[in-house]
């Protein structure tokens, strides 16, 4: 019940106009509750405006920091090194079932790989690297490691494992990267694996038997092909802008996570 000593003048006025003591008390109880709610909301807003965040000093552990510099000396400008990359930034779940999508997405949502090597031109991931310390001998870590290895294998991305050491030899790291490290030569052109965007990917008009473009030929739609990257059934799309505006092509339904495209061929009838 509200303190009867509060708002004494207002209480007298309310009683003077005929409200009973019980009605006045009930009214002031309601007013007190509303005032308490307002104060709590103000307090919550003030708390929300505070940002108690600071930069971590251990973004890389001493072992990761040491390995990074040796790795950098080995790969040079041939590969870009990205530390601590979330698995959800590397991979996506191929599923049209919302529940299945959510379950498998949650499995990778809070996991990361210590280092990712990328093509310096396209930023396409080339390989992941995990540093294994003593904690990886625990049963729960072994289970986690097996799962992560399965994710990389399913996506076709190499995962390399390096045992944590006090020091690392550049030659040993170079030997480990033998299969993913590009040739060390200025004459070698970087391999571009980046797929064109949806607006750029439409194939040109097919040619008729006399070598001229046949714009008036009737056509039937062929069955949707399977995405060469993730195996999903592709969708027929039309480029909305760019040099291929108005032309059709097959695009992956998971775009932009999967940018694979296939030329659309008209079948004459």
Strand portion, in percent? 15-25%
Task: Provide the residue-averaged pLDDT.
Answer: 81
The figure for the number of domains is: 3
Which structural class matches the secondary elements?
alpha+beta
Query: Numbering strands along the chain, what is their spatial order in the largest sheet?
Result: 1-2-3-4
Radius of gyration: 32 Å
Inertia-based shape: extended
How many helices? The count is: 7
**SSE string, helix = H, strand = E?**
HHHEHHEEHEHEEEEE
Features:
3 domains; 4-stranded mixed β-sheet; 3-stranded antiparallel β-sheet; 269 residues; alpha+beta
Overall description:
It is a single chain. The model is unreliable at 186-217 (pLDDT under 50). The longest helix is centred in the N-terminal third of the chain and has 28 residues, at 21-48. The protein contains seven helices and nine strands. With 269 residues, it is α+β, with helices and mostly antiparallel strands. Strands 1-2-3-4 form a four-stranded mixed β-sheet, sandwiched between helices. Strands 6-7-8 form a three-stranded antiparallel β-sheet, with no helix packed on it. The chain has a two-stranded antiparallel sheet with strand order 5-9. Strand 3 (125-132), helix 6 and strand 4 form a beta-alpha-beta unit. The protein folds into three domains: 8-48; 62-176, no CATH class; 195-269, no CATH class. The chain is extended and about 95 Å long.
